[in-house]
Amino acid sequence: MMPLKNKFIIYSAIIAFLGFLDATYLTLVHFRNTIPPCTIGNCETVLTSQYAVILGIPTALLGSLFYLSVILVCLLIMTNYKKIFHQAYYLLAATGLIVSAILLGIQAFVLHAFCQYCLLSAATSTGIAILAYLHYREQKNS
Amino acid sequence: MEKLTKAQKKALQKSEWQKEAEAAARKEQMKKFGLWGAVAVLVGIAIFGLALFVNKSPTSSIDTSQTVPMSSEYDIVLGNKNSKVSLIEYSDLQCPACASYHPLVKQILTEYPNVRYVYRNFPLTNIHPNAQIAAQAGYAANLQGKFWEMADALFTNQPDWEKSPSPQTIFVNYAQKLGLNAEKFTTDMNSQEAKKFVSESEKQAISAGINSTPSFFLNGARITASSYEDFKKLIDDAFEK
After folding, report:
1. Are residues B5 and B88 in the same domain?
2. Most exposed of A105, A116, B87, B172 (fewest Cβ within 10 Å)?
């Protein structure tokens, strides 16, 4: 089986998969030009705002690609233990955390509206960042 | 049986070890391939499943059990007034979801000039403090024949006035930009008639059983639609009937 030293990597991949489902759902909804079912907090406002598209690319699609990259890097670490993959993993995790913080800030202070799908994505990317930190600490100590 | 020399035995042992090591490496390789394959399949299934879900999830439907009157004296009517197809919307100018639907409705009005479009005020004043005055601004603009232009300005710039303590100033500014008579607009917006128009619309909406905005009705029957294509399909069907 997988060596135990990869447990944080495995958890990251699982969480990234959840984030991938979330972001891909929003991407599909975006390209279908439908307004997604919003149960709480005016998510229409968020998902149809100018921040839903960054330089012509839907933010949700960027999210999908981000989570897919995390899954890819986690697999690379699991199957080919190279330092560069670890560095890529840390970089991705940090980027995810920063972008999530910015998007959360836009929801709170600019749009004054939240969307549950976006909050879930913020949670998953924060989770990945925490796991990446734990993995980093473990690597340093071993 | 021939006896093997020591050197032969050693060589045999070595080749066996080598074979074992190769087998183990192959097994490891297979495992890696298996992992990659499994994840690739999982991601593929996820994308496919989500696409299926998004495509199948309830998009447009018509519910003939929930109906509203085809016309009322508090209607703002656009489009072809004699059309056989009436699209009625209960809306609140300060509601974010209504603002999200606004581009769809706008597209419908452009693509289907033959549809009778009815705008009915249903300001959710409990949660939207500026909804009432915004609806009055819509009323005032309508008196000068520019309701839709005003609604467009209000929906598009919703974040600029939704929290404003003096939205009237902003609305007068929009009226000026739209080429309305600002003085008449201001008087109309603050008139008793405007207040009554909006509060009566609200009462009628409540008695019609409306509980959220935007609520759409096609020829009186409740419809749900979440994209232009959904509306298009329902409207086309209504025209063909």
Report:
1. no
2. A105
